[in-house]
Amino acid sequence: MKTKIIFFLIAALLIVSLTACGNADQESNRVEATSGSLDGKQTITIGYLPITHALAIFEEKELLDAEDAGIQIELIKFSSWTDLTDALNSGQIDGASVLIELAMSAAGSGIDLKAAALGHKDGNVIIVSNAINSVEELKGKTFAIPSNQSSHNILLNDMLMDSGLTAEDLTVTQLAPAEMPSSLANGSIDGYCVAEPFGAQAVVQGYGKVLYQSDELWENSQCCAFVLNNKFIKENEEAADLLVSWYLKAGKALDAKTSQQIAEKYLGQNEETLEESLQWIQYDDLELTEEDYAVLREKVISYGINDNPPSYEDFVYKPKQKDSEE
Questions:
Q1: CB-hemisphere CA count at 13 Å for 183?
Q2: What whole-number distance in Å separates Cα of residue 41 and Cα of residue 57?
Q3: CB 106: neighbour CB atoms within 10 A?
Q4: CA–CA separation, 63 vs 78, rounded Å?
Q5: In angstroms, rounded to a whole number, what is the distance separating the alpha carbons of residues 175 and 194?
Q6: What is the number of helices (H) and of strands (E) in the chain?
Q7: Helix 290-302 crosses helix 151-162 at what angle (to 10 degrees)?
Q8: How far apart are CA 79 and CA 53, in angstroms?
Q9: DSSP structure string for 172-235
Q10: Whole-Å CA distances, 17 to 4, 12, 23
Q11: Cα 23 from Cα 154, distance rounded (Å)
Q12: Mean pLDDT, range 155-179, rounded to an integer
């Protein structure tokens, strides 16, 4: 009798133990399934540099934080294009606002990236020292760009070609965006083209001036793009489509007043600098069209920036659903 009681007690303990293990496995699976989410919303990590060209992702975060859209953005700040592209290319972040030429180069090298939209249109300026009054006077001078793989390089070449010069007539150097205003002020460079608001800084502080606005050299010029890692898209197609939809909506919401407010909140620049900078840029239509991409593709080839850029079909992501608020 005692033996039977002991047997039943052991059996009961085994059943309880197995049940507990099963519940533990279910809990583990539940935690894994909800990783990358907060408050029931899927969190998507987006990298950026603190420039006006990234305003659409800042505004999108504001819109999503105020809505129950099922997704939310975690912004990851970077100090250089190199660090940002490394994180994007390795999948450490889901997407980014990045120089479109850098993304094109990465895609052409086998990195699985997709451009979902533009970061902006126009919004760059050619800044020169107050002693420079024409393109011809830049001959033999030093001019800075943030990267050879950039629309700033394209704009420099466009400007020089229109004046019968080439990049070989100048000393072209690469500097981090934040270093350019001070380098112009101390005379180590004679001009630069870079993302805003670093051009406006020189104008407002009085040690530089605008020689050209980007739309005078290349109308509807493309510079930064909203790029997603294709692994993220494949694994989260519904969330990716929703993300792009809200991004395009954010661009349309960036009127003059909203742009100023968002820029002041996220960039920490003074009001006068931002007012000067934001007059040069557009956000209202951020779709990357085949026609505009063809112009960009032709320019990167002709200036030796990229000998084999990806095709529109291979590089540009087209969501299944359009902007829900159109």
A1: 24
A2: 17
A3: 20
A4: 22
A5: 9
A6: 14, 13
A7: 70
A8: 14
A9: EEE--GGGHHHHHHTTS-SEEE-STTHHHHHHHHTS-EEEEEHHHHSTT---EEEEEEHHHHHH
A10: 20, 9, 10
A11: 60
A12: 96
CA distance 261 to 23: 49
pLDDT band for position 320 (50/70/90)? confident
pLDDT for 278 beyond 60: yes
Q: Phi and psi of 190, rounded to 5°? A: -110, -10
**321: confidence class by pLDDT, cuts 50, 70, 90:** low
Helix (H, G, I), strand (E, B) or coil at 159: helix
By 3-state DSSP, what share of the chain in percent is helix, strand and coil, each rounded to 5?
50, 20, 30
Q: State whether the Cα torsion 208-212-215-219 is positive or negative.
A: negative
Q: Give the tens place of pLDDT for each residue, 23-38.
A: 333 332 222 333 355 5
Domains of the chain: 38-122+222-315 (3.40.190.10), 125-217 (3.40.190.10)
Pairing of strands 37-38, 41-48: antiparallel
Q: Taking residues 208-213, what's their average pLDDT?
A: 98
Q: How many residues does the chain have?
A: 326
Which residues lie across from 210 on neighbouring strands?
127
Sorting pLDDT into bands at 50, 70 and 90, what band is 286?
A: very high
Look at the block and give the residue holding tokens 């793989």: 149
CA nearest to 178, candidates 253, 85, 259, 77: 77
The pLDDT score that the predictor gives to residue 299 is 97
Instruction: Give the E-state strand segments of the chain in sequence order.
Output: 37-38, 41-48, 71-77, 95-99, 113-118, 121-122, 125-128, 142-145, 171-174, 191-193, 209-213, 224-229, 281-282
H or E stretch at 253: helix 237-253
